Amino acid sequence: MIEADDREDVRITFEDLKSLLRAIFVSSGTSLDTAYILAENCAGCERDGALSHGIFRMPGYVDSLRSGWVSGQAVPAVERFGPSFIRIDARNGFAQSALASADPMIRRAVRETGIAIAAIRNSHHFSALWPDVEPFAVDGYFAMTMVNGLANVVPHGGRQAVFGTNPIAFAVPVECSGPLVVDQATSVMANGEVRLHALAGKAVPNGTGVDRDGKPTTDPHQILAGGALNTFGGYKGSSIALFVEILAGAVTGGQFSFETDFTGFPGAQTPKAGQLLIVIDPSWGGSANFTSRMALLCRQLLDAGQDRLPGARRFANRAASGRSGIPVKASDLQRLRLMACDQNTQT
Amino acid sequence: MIEADDREDVRITFEDLKSLLRAIFVSSGTSLDTAYILAENCAGCERDGALSHGIFRMPGYVDSLRSGWVSGQAVPAVERFGPSFIRIDARNGFAQSALASADPMIRRAVRETGIAIAAIRNSHHFSALWPDVEPFAVDGYFAMTMVNGLANVVPHGGRQAVFGTNPIAFAVPVECSGPLVVDQATSVMANGEVRLHALAGKAVPNGTGVDRDGKPTTDPHQILAGGALNTFGGYKGSSIALFVEILAGAVTGGQFSFETDFTGFPGAQTPKAGQLLIVIDPSWGGSANFTSRMALLCRQLLDAGQDRLPGARRFANRAASGRSGIPVKASDLQRLRLMACDQNTQT
User: Fold this and answer.
1) Cα–Cα distance for residue pair B293/B288, rounded to 1 Å
2) Chain A residues with CB inside 8 Å of B184's CB?
3) In chain A, what residues touch B87 (CB-CB under 8 Å)?
4) What is the CATH number of domain A75-187+231-309?
5) Of B27, B28, B46, B53, which is the active-site residue?
6) pLDDT at position A341, please?
7) Interface ipTM
8) Per CATH, the architecture of A1-67+311-347 is what?
């Protein structure tokens, strides 16, 4: 993880950054709705120090939109297929827009039945997963989600990429505390982190991945140029990657990571895959005091010596950004302003 | 994994082994229903070469039942709390009995709504998880489950045990093939495997666990005697262990792994925790041909060089046991017969 402090230069407020990103999205051809959703998401990652999904991603968003590979105007089709079962055709748009469209229905389902499952297909996901689950935990629910992606991860014992980095996230409310939020790739390293290492000219640790011939390498460029990442945790991590591939890629009716084909869409970067979300109201489960039980578990983890609870670093970054603005390199900010301008000129 | 071939000696049929185990359970004080369920489960593990949950576990079952810690007569209370939401109070009995009681309701819920969640509390689980999910996959459903246990696993970065070995399992149907079934502890090694290593006098690999002072050790006896296991896959595996602890221990209204207190129950070994099960009908999710999609994914994994699909070894062992009987050490078989006899004498 490259820390926020490494590139502190100028400060921008969350609202100003969102406005700037919205302008870029709209001028790249998205609807106003989608621009609001993606700008909130991307600016939120930058604010929280989740830099591999922050403004660093903007060129990828823009190039993908301009290539015609992903639709910024898609209107998702949301169906409540059963009392707890929602399925969504993102119609080749961004998963976040699909999720936002389904959000009222998901919340109604979980209020009425204690559980909601949302199966999103024909969707693109190019960001972190924690923004998709954290709001449910803020409202007292347990939520988990997963997406598959572009085939760039080798199954344990194999030689070729089959899985995407296939992240999984979950969030849970905790009494007297912010929610506990986990978001992690099932690859040894997230793809965005590999790209940050490549940009910074830093080697990745041993065991991170292989080159195009299947040979181990610590060169992030080799991993990105036809090579692949390993799964975390050997065969057990590979099983978790498989779990994500099945739920996000198959149960949703989406595509598998190895089925993405960018041919004919130069510049396209967003994985077209699927996303599954499950939200549970813990008060239905048999615990009368779920959030205080979670507080007990968190205290136990800290007492056992765990130095930080999942999500805590992001919350600290968020608080700091709220006090003194989001630190951004001046050159990056200028680049964003030019992107908005460049796009406006073209349309 | 200690292989079936290591201890081949005599052969017993699945039916005969089940009868013998049933006699032991009944004479240890279980109801006939519970005896049938646990014998089927334990004999099935032995048959499939899942030896760490086979007949090796019988003394632990018997001692736990005789200690009064777990009830072999418990009648679970099953409630359909919502169209998709089933909650079960196992009433201090075995989770497998609770699940069997709820099975018709779970199947009705998934048929009617496409998803079922079963939250089991006040339950003991002393076996593998694959028997709890495989039958759903055989019937065309995706199923996942998880249980927490006894605190014997250190969270990543910590010094004291908080988690149980917290296994997670999932099963999924595959066209023209047996189901794909994953069952794995979130510790580096399953506790039963550590015990098999201790019995065999074999050291465990580096990184498996720590002694009672939190120092790394490869001595299985040190790990079992007040020491603890590590989670698999560093902090990411630790997050998966946390995921299991939250869903199985808290969402169900069960106990956390660190809350088990055997005091007053000498001989007790079964963890009193919780279990969560989610079953999904993939035909509700947006895929018109789910099982053939799964076949495509399996072919891709094999083509990428993965040498074996999850569950395949157990299925091969099962087929071999069906042809020529289950291989068991003569001395183990004699011990089982004496256990049944010994218990009968006492009651």
Assistant:
1) 9
2) 236, 239
3) 284-286
4) 3.30.1370.60
5) B53
6) 84
7) 0.94
8) Orthogonal Bundle (1.10)
